[in-house]
Design goal:
single chain; 551 residues; mainly alpha; Leucine-rich Repeat Variant; 4 domains; two-stranded parallel ribbon; 29 helices; extended
């Protein structure tokens, strides 16, 4: 320890006047200060030593100046909309409403108010971030480079390879996954090389997330790496690798899957099925009117030891038998085109025949629904939906609900959604409580198409009006659907929804429900946003017309 520091901590009185000897550099100065008290000498010597040390200090070089933000290319958000935009950033505003406003700003070429940039850059929801990118402006992109958790905004499709590599090495897991997906679209081999090099160092959850990036640009060259991942320590990684390999028709894994799966499903055309019925074949359950053929299923009798090596799981989830679960794993991984070719029947014919299976019909439909979603086979959506309605019962509600959600979620981006929603009302024939109907609305992406919005909203209103006040619990699923509709219906349907809500007598029990009050608040907020944006557009259009007239 430094002698002066030791003396100061111990105390002058305990040193009995024996102060440390000054250094040679301060000897001449110490002789002059010796006449004072020991305390004064100690303090003066400490100050002198500090001044002496600073006299020879060379300051470090200053950091290079920060480059200023590039000039803005977007117009500023109109002043009268700033307060409205600030209110949309509140935590209790549904993200669909914020996204709707951001998309309207992007259409008009506006940017986020500058003082709101730190708040919007801190948003974590992926859908909101996607809507934010086009309206951050140059200042927002510049600011995003100063914090690691804001860098999601600067990873763009035009980023150079060097910048992508830096983010790959230094970024968060979500940023690295984004970089990998982006690189897969342009340089798939480079992306795979990076993944192979990093693979041994990654944890199980990171390996799964990064492996999912191979879905972009999946090709036969990925098979060796996926075969390696098929033997991973993590069960989730093995399952994902198996699903990806199944999407490569010529892979060893896909060929093995098909060799087993084709023995489990036999398609019996119309003539043969009628002959079997005349010879005493078993009666089949209710099915779509166009169904004339039969499907005979052979569920596996036992789990073969080699199946685990191919990413299949022995133990089923709760509520599903082992044989059904083994069967489902095989069928849902097979490309649907193989069934069409193998059976010599169109998707509509195969789906219509599914309810005829005496054993495992719902499981077959669940497997084909999973395959239709993962393979984006839009031609299967409608036929599978009709087949579900033909054979499903309350005992299969959970299985149907999962398949239904996935079909609707995928159909939202395929143009098939209106067809499925039109069929959706068929659920109410055997499940009038509407639990499954309302549950099926959740995966429908916002905003719902105009015709879908009106059809669904009309159904919700009709069912709420039918509820007996003495059986108020029957309204619960429809109230949940009402809250969802407030966030999802098309902008063109907002006025109709407001008219309905305003026409309800305040004395009715419905008006006291929290879900109804939340519905009114969201509808009012969305209408206010739409009105303000429309008013500015009209004002700008009118101003432009005046300038044109003056010329």
């Amino acid at each position: 320890m430094d002698e002066l520091l030791h003396a100061a901590m111990l105390g002058i009185s305990r040193l009995e006047g024996r102060l440390p000897q000054p250094s040679d550099e301060l000897a001449s100065w110490a002789a002059e200060a010796a006449a004072g008290s020991p305390q004064r000498r100690l303090l003066l010597e400490a100050g002198a030593r500090c001044a002496y040390g600073m006299a020879g200090y060379a300051p470090e070089s200053a950091a290079p100046p920060v480059s200023p933000a590039p000039p803005e290319t977007l117009d500023a958000c109109p002043h009268h909309l700033i307060e409205l935009f600030e209110s949309l950033l509140a935590s209790d505003v549904p993200q669909e409403v914020l996204i709707e406003a951001l998309q309207a700003m992007a259409q008009r070429g506006w940017r986020v108010p500058l003082h709101c940039l730190p708040d919007v850059l801190s948003i974590t929801e992926a859908k909101v971030r996607a809507a934010l990118r086009p309206v951050l402006g140059q200042r927002g992109l510049w600011l995003a480079g100063f914090r690691e958790d804001w860098r999601w905004a600067v990873v763009s499709d035009e980023a150079p390879l060097q910048e992508l590599e830096r983010i790959w090495n230094e970024g968060s897991l979500s940023q690295r996954c984004q970089v990998l997906r982006q690189l897969r679209a342009t340089h798939p081999q480079q992306a795979r090389t990076w993944l192979c090099e990093a693979w041994p160092r990654e944890k199980a959850d990171a390996r799964q997330a990064l492996l999912r990036s191979l879905e972009t640009g999946l090709a036969g060259d990925d098979e060796p790496f996926l075969e390696q991942a098929l033997a991973d320590r993590s069960k989730d990684v093995r399952l994902l690798a198996a699903r990806l390999l199944a999407r490569l028709p010529e892979s060893r894994h896909a060929r093995w899957l098909w060799s087993v799966a084709q023995t489990m499903v036999r398609y019996v055309p119309q003539a043969q099925s009628q002959q079997a019925h005349q010879q005493g074949g078993h009666a089949r359950p209710a099915q779509p009117a166009e169904a004339a053929a039969l499907l005979e299923l052979t569920l596996p009798a036992r789990f073969e030891p080699t199946w685990a090596e191919q990413g299949l799981i022995d133990a089923p989830p709760a509520g599903v038998s082992k044989r059904e679960y083994w069967f489902w794993q095989f069928v849902q991984r097979v490309p649907l085109a193989r069934w069409v070719e193998h059976c010599g029947a169109a998707p509509a014919q195969l789906a219509a025949a599914a309810p005829s299976a005496s054993e495992g019909a719902p499981v077959l439909l669940a497997a084909w629904s999973e395959a239709a979603v993962s393979q984006q086979a839009a031609e299967w959506y409608g036929p599978l939906w009709d087949a579900w309605l033909a054979c499903v019962g309350v005992e299969h509600a959970s299985l149907w609900g999962q398949a239904c959600n996935k079909l609707i979620l995928t159909a939202s981006g395929s143009g098939k959604l209106p067809q499925l929603v039109k069929r959706l009302t068929g659920l109410l024939d055997w499940e009038p409580e509407g639990t499954l109907f309302c549950h099926a609305l959740e995966p429908m992406a916002a905003p719902w198409p105009a015709d879908v919005s009106r059809a669904v909203f009309a159904q919700i209103v009709d069912r709420l009006q039918r509820v007996n006040p003495k059986r108020h619990w029957e309204a619960y699923p429809w109230l949940a659907a009402l809250k969802l509709a407030a966030r999802r219906i098309a902008p063109g349907a907002l006025d109709e929804a407001a008219v309905w809500a305003n026409a309800i007598d305040a004395s009715q029990p419905l008006t006291q429900q929290p879900a109804f009050l939340a519905f009114c608040q969201v509808i009012q907020l969305r209408r206010e946003v739409a009105r303000n944006f429309a008013a500015h557009s009209l004002e700008k259009s009118s101003h432009g017309q005046e300038q044109s007239d003056s010329k």
